Amino acid sequence: MDSDLRTRAAQGHPIPLSLRAQFRLWRRILMLAGTILIFVPLHYLWRLFRLPSPWPRMFLGTAGRIAGARVKKIGVPLKRDVFYISNHLSWLDILALGGASGTAFVAKAELATAPLVGWLAGLNRTVYVKRENRLGVADQINQLRDALEENWAVTVFPEGTTTDGQSLLPFKTPMLRVLEPPPPGVMVQPVMLDYGAVAEELGWIGEESGVNNAKRILSRKGSFQLRVSFLEPFHPRDYPGRKAIAAESRKRIETALLAALGKPLRPFAYAVDAVRYEKPPEEPGA
Length: 286
Description:
By secondary structure, the chain is α/β, with parallel strands linked by helices. It is 40% helix and 13% strand.
């Protein structure tokens, strides 16, 4: 995709698709529909018998492959009692990380409107957060605490938005309040996502809608490698407070991203609204 078209997409303009691109788009949509018809009934069947369902994870991994992602997992993900902290480029991150680890997610509310992905991510226990002053995080924090008590893996994207793979925004800390104090036995594991040469093309940035971004990705030719690097985990008690946890996670992700890119990071080229949340109520004795 040339730079002019990429700029138009980021400005919110729909990108015209050739006949071949439309064919690829609809072929992938039909393939996704086919996997839904297989995996979703199986998921609800498992739920009916109160069995742990592997099907959301299997679907997310399969959907990512249909979309063109060839996920290469690097490092060893902790399987339970883990809080993943990751950089964020695309709704494809949900598919890749969910397929690679089975994690639940905290993601921006706009993802819920992405075709298919929003609903399917919801099956995988995604918690959606709006970037609005009037929405507090107390309820979301309670959901995360419940999740961690049930031994889930949970992923947050603390940049608060998606970027272009060449930048790393400051990490926001409200959703990390669940780690103050850390639940017993829970570890933090930073994750670095690297889309390589296609990062800028695929990134969901600027004013582009989720629908248009999905159309662009599902209509593109060929596949691409997505490296999911599970970095060295650490215990949150060694970095007391959410700001220290965010800083240590960001440092580790930045080091890994610099090594992957082989060049310095650059400032993010698009305006990013501040992520401001109402302060959650103080707990007794806090």
